[in-house]
Automatic annotation (TrEMBL):
<feature type="domain" description="RNA polymerase sigma-70 region 2">
    <location>
        <begin position="54"/>
        <end position="96"/>
    </location>
</feature>
<dbReference type="GO" id="GO:0016987">
    <property type="term" value="F:sigma factor activity"/>
</dbReference>
<dbReference type="Pfam" id="PF04545">
    <property type="entry name" value="Sigma70_r4"/>
</dbReference>
<protein>
    <submittedName>
        <fullName>Sigma-70 family RNA polymerase sigma factor</fullName>
    </submittedName>
</protein>
<dbReference type="InterPro" id="IPR014284">
    <property type="entry name" value="RNA_pol_sigma-70_dom"/>
</dbReference>
<feature type="domain" description="RNA polymerase sigma-70 region 4">
    <location>
        <begin position="181"/>
        <end position="222"/>
    </location>
</feature>
<dbReference type="GO" id="GO:0006352">
    <property type="term" value="P:DNA-templated transcription initiation"/>
</dbReference>
<dbReference type="InterPro" id="IPR007630">
    <property type="entry name" value="RNA_pol_sigma70_r4"/>
</dbReference>
<keyword id="KW-0238">DNA-binding</keyword>
<keyword id="KW-0805">Transcription regulation</keyword>
<dbReference type="GO" id="GO:0003677">
    <property type="term" value="F:DNA binding"/>
</dbReference>
<dbReference type="InterPro" id="IPR000943">
    <property type="entry name" value="RNA_pol_sigma70"/>
</dbReference>
<dbReference type="InterPro" id="IPR007627">
    <property type="entry name" value="RNA_pol_sigma70_r2"/>
</dbReference>
<keyword id="KW-0804">Transcription</keyword>
<dbReference type="InterPro" id="IPR013325">
    <property type="entry name" value="RNA_pol_sigma_r2"/>
</dbReference>
<dbReference type="Pfam" id="PF04542">
    <property type="entry name" value="Sigma70_r2"/>
</dbReference>
<dbReference type="InterPro" id="IPR013324">
    <property type="entry name" value="RNA_pol_sigma_r3/r4-like"/>
</dbReference>
């Protein structure tokens, strides 16, 4: 068959295939299968690493070739030139779709040329069975060190409940050492969350008296040696929470550094609270 006859046959079959004639599409595919194979072997040597990365073989290319023929038949315009020319462009399009799984991104290859590849994360993922240390195959794998958000949240919630109960018990003992009236005021204010007015009403005293008693109780708590020792231990224990590999990788800080940071944060909070109180008092004086 001459080139002219081949072109006429392709054009006729493409026209019929575009109307949904499956037999014509099959014939068009069979007629151009050899051309598609030659396209692959012209493309593959220059893009071997890209094809291997996505697992594209000659058989895969041939299957994609059928879809290229189908697309070319549906979109072919005889006035634009030979069907084989349009099929070559359709094949390039199909290759990009096959490599990108329909989700594309551009990158520059070793040859300095811009190519299109998959933007699908599944094509660029790692196995969770890979060891963290490539030189220690028996060491922990990526999967073993991946955090479980649900489990971590549940663990944190349980830890906070335990810590809160322990803190409440320690403070309760310290308040008992302050005296009956101070203990009652502090429990109403900080355990029950009552305002000074509500506390005063409940105890039969004025809000001003509540403030005086509260100030006296806080002074006693700050000088309580048992409470201070508990505070130091609690500070260190909390610093040891979450000191695994992932925490170190994300923060880059040691336990000692975290203790120092926590102390600095506490000190900064104290300074900020004093500053806020000073500004508030100045504002009140200006308003008088």
């Amino acid at each position: 068959m001459s080139a002219a006859e081949q072109q006429a046959t392709n054009a006729a079959l493409a026209t019929l295939a575009a109307t949904g004639n499956s037999y014509a599409l099959g014939q068009l595919w069979e007629t151009n299968r050899g051309l598609i194979r030659s396209m692959f072997w012209k493309w593959y040597p220059h893009h071997k690493s890209l094809a291997d990365q996505h697992g594209v073989t000659a058989d895969d290319f041939e299957q994609e070739g059928f879809f290229a023929v189908q697309y070319a038949a549906r979109t072919y315009d005889p006035a634009a030139g030979a069907f084989s020319t349009w099929l070559a462009q359709a094949m390039q399009r199909q290759i990009q779709l096959a490599l990108s799984n329909g989700h594309r991104r551009k990158f520059v290859d070793e040859d300095g040329k811009t190519h299109t590849t998959s933007a699908d994360p599944l094509n660029h993922c790692f196995s969770l069975d890979l060891p963290i240390d490539s030189e220690n195959a028996d060491g922990p794998t990526l999967g073993e060190v991946q955090p479980d958000p649900a489990a971590e949240q549940a663990f944190t919630a349980a830890e906070e409940r335990i810590s809160s109960a322990q803190t409440r018990a320690v403070l309760g003992d310290a308040l008992d050492r302050c005296g009956t009236i101070e203990s009652a005021v502090m429990r109403h204010r900080f355990f029950d969350g009552l305002s000074m007015a509500a506390t005063g009403e409940k105890m039969g005293i004025t809000p001003a008296q509540v403030r005086t008693i509260e100030t006296r109780a806080l002074r006693k708590l700050r000088s309580d040696p048992k409470l201070r020792r508990w505070h130091d231990r609690e500070l260190e224990n909390r610093a040891w929470h979450g000191v695994g590999y992932l925490t170190w990788r994300e923060t880059g800080s040691s336990v000692q550094e975290r203790v120092t940071e926590r102390l600095e944060t506490i000190e900064l909070n104290k300074i900020a609270a004093k500053r806020e109180k000073t500004l508030k008092n100045e504002h009140l004086r200006e308003g008088v």
